[in-house]
Amino acid sequence: MARPEQVLVLEPQHELKFRGPFTDVVTATLKLTNPTDRNVCFKVKTTAPRRYCVRPNSGVIDPGNSVNVSVMLQPFDYDPNEKSKHKFMVQSMLAPYGMTDMEGVWKEAKPEELMDSKLRCAFEMPLENDKTSELSTLPKSASASLDDGEVKKIMEECKRLQMEVHRLREENKQIREDDGLRKRKVTSMGSPHSSSSSAMATSAMRDEGLSTRILALCVLFFVIGVIIGKLAL
Q1: Collapsing DSSP states into helix, strand and coil, what is residue 12?
Q2: 214 CB contacts (<8 Å, ≥6 apart)?
Q3: What DSSP letter does each residue of 178-230 carry, written as one string?
Q4: How do residues 194-233 score in pLDDT, each as one tens digit?
Q5: Positive or negative, the Cα torsion across 62, 68, 72, 73?
Q6: Among residues 157, 165, 156, 176, which one has the least CA distance to residue 213?
Q7: Do residues 90 and 6 touch, judged by C-beta distance below 8 A?
Q8: Count of other CB atoms within 10 angstroms of residue 124
């Protein structure tokens, strides 16, 4: 006696596609839908049980409901010249009324009560041009996020930093000149050596503080200049 036709609706119907790279777990989803007015028991089997992890691999689907089955392919060394021979089978049967032991029902099921559907597996690697197109969209999205107003603000900030650097240089120059005059006066007046050392230390601390500020502003100015250069490209 021929087996009855499958009552479950499978999505996809004939092929499970796994898209690489296969250096990590790759998951495909199999949707099972029960369009009947009866509970339907199901099992998912494969010809390569060591290569796949299936969750859930069995269960009961209520009338009008669906179940998403995750089929997880374990990592392996992909060979594009080798075709996949792996297959899956979805086996189902109408659940008896008042069923309490699903495993017992499967063991006692008659062949004419079982329905099955088979799916083949296909492995796909992403094309090189797909990777290139994905990467090429990144600079465009980044530049698109900056409008004319933001670019104008950056230009104004650059001008302000230029003026600040120029002011600090003039201030540093003036301080050096004042310190030179002070040292000459101290020397001519024959002041103690300790006073001269203190003045020189104070001058060195001022110079160091100003030099640090100028260096920080120059670095910030350089970074903003690089950003504007990229936007111009």
Answers
A1: coil
A2: 165, 168, 169, 172
A3: HHHHHHHHHHHHT--HHHHHHHHHHHHHHHHHHHHHHHHHHHHHHHHHHHHHH
A4: 455 555 555 555 555 556 666 666 667 676 765 666 555 5
A5: positive
A6: 165
A7: yes
A8: 12
